[in-house]
Amino acid sequence: MSSSEYGSHTWELLLTVDHQLEGVDKEFLLPVTGDLHIGGLMLKLVEKIPVSQDWSDYAFWWEQKKCWLLKTHWTLDKCGVQADAKLLFTPQHKMLRLRLPSMKTVRLKVSFSAMVFRAVSDVCKMLNIRRPEELSLLKQSGDTLKKKKKKDKNNKEQVTEDILNLCNSPVSSGLPANSGLYSKTMAPIYDPLSGSPASSTITWFSDSSLTDQNCSVLALSHPNCSPEMLAEMYQPRTLADKAKLNAGWLDSSRSLMEQGVLEDDQLLLRFKYYTFFDLNPKYDAVRINQIYEQARWAILLEEIDCTEEEMLIFAAIQAQYHVSKLSLSSETQDSTCESEVDEVEAALSNLEVTLEGGSTSNILEDITDIPKLADNLRLVRPRKLSLKAIKSYWFIFRDTSISYFKNEESAQGEPIEKLNLKGCEVVPDVNVAAKKFGIKLLIPVADGMNEAYLRCDNEDQYARWMAACVLASKGRTMADSSYQPEVQKILSFLQMKNMSSQATSDPESVDMKPECFISPRYTKKYKSKQLTARILEAHQNISQMSLVEAKLRFIQAWQSLPEFGLSYYIVRFKGSKKDDVLGVSYNRLIRIDMATGDPITTWRFSNMKQWNVNWEIRQVAIEFDQNVSIAFMCLSADCKIIHEYIGGYIFLSTRSKDQNETLDEDLFHKLTGGQE
User: Fold this and answer.
1) What is the CATH number of the domain that holds 605?
2) Which residues form the PH domain (predicted)?
């Protein structure tokens, strides 16, 4: 280099090219100036490489700063790049292995430079999963992998993992996804029985590797898992163990590369937010199946607690799903489209039903009458020293409030107490076998929650009052059109629980492995024949269900569990000398005693005024109504994860069916990104 070329403002920058070309150098030393922009640096580098190829997917990765240089109009000086910088010229899209909730592993190309929120959205387009904002990527912690690695050392013969390779799809290649997958009028239609795409809609997948075969693999479950397979998987025993499961969520506002993810690593694709919006069997075959699978594994691995009776119900639904799938596979399926309905006609039909809203007499009745319930119920008030006061009162439910009186004759006067249920938490307390039908109400007050229990006499009374309480907690009255469907849903769930009056089939004549449907805790407690008999008892109620119906019923039963949707973290509250567990749900935060597992205080998002994070000391501070404020430090994970959970749930609460499926990504990052 001549002295004129090597001016006072010129310096040398070492660039490394990530390629697999034989006989071509990987390192290049280029003379540059501080006012050279990133795009110009790319051009100079490509001109130096003796082989011509498509470099459009390549970008600079700054190894020391762990960041991408994606703003090609920025100069080196503006980026802060100096002579000691190590820049890697590497593809933005790389191979990644994702383990789905169904335990199926897919291998595909994912953007390592885009924010995780955008990368997950692209992956979901490829897998035909709507509402990608409900999912995220999870990196398994070392503690959850220890047990599996220990098992692997004992097993010399390793079974090759079955991986679905989707690396040739448009999304994987960095190209825009086919808009037909998400079109309102050209969305794929699924067989309601098998859950697989109807033959006439396979053409919408023709430019993607997600063909009919691959889609069926993702939309159908394979519930036969051996007890040995369950034993190899991580099973949380305590709240601290459950907290480990949620420690590895990736930051949605940063890229995979920035978070230490390498090419061909394995991550878990999971539903992070438990608010499943607009589930539609017509469009959501893959999505429904993956939710079902996540619920099924959570039950089997005891990540969520359920009673023995509830476990048998879950087992019965799984058994029904398995039986339905076997019966479908044994019959010759004709993939004609005779039963398909034109989507425009279906939309018009739905609109007509919505506008009619039932018969004219019902409409007039809804307008003129104020719906109310009036019954004799028993009120249970918790007292100190574990004593409970149980007394019968005359209850009246009107609008979103419950009033109770000494008796029916005194109902015209002032009530003993009026309970406003708007914003309250409603928890079922039911034991069908013991004829116990209770409703637990957690009513928000300034310093937490007040508890009240209502005891009903029978299933019908319980269903009516429970449905009214659930709607009232959301600010809706019994005049709402969803009241009667809610009553029917509760009655159908109670019917599932009612096993005592059902006839028991001969267990020996049925080829069933109950260990595939029951968590290890209960398989150790009972013999196989006993479990088979009890599963068959519960199965009698649901023996006519289709595949999709069984999965939706399973999801519904999962959602009814008291611990549904809770993600646990170990925290230290400001001013406290001991660690507690914080449960994060879609509508509330719960402080839980780590030793006993008992809830201490509940704070609802609806009462939250603001929240912020002190990034220097990693402390989350939240202010609620009535001058209630809390602050805590997260010990089991980065506080950014809890911050993102809170913002994410608030973001999801803004969704409505009137909107199209395009997301306000900027709003999501404003609510979850933080200011680090």
Assistant:
1) 2.30.29.30
2) 378-474
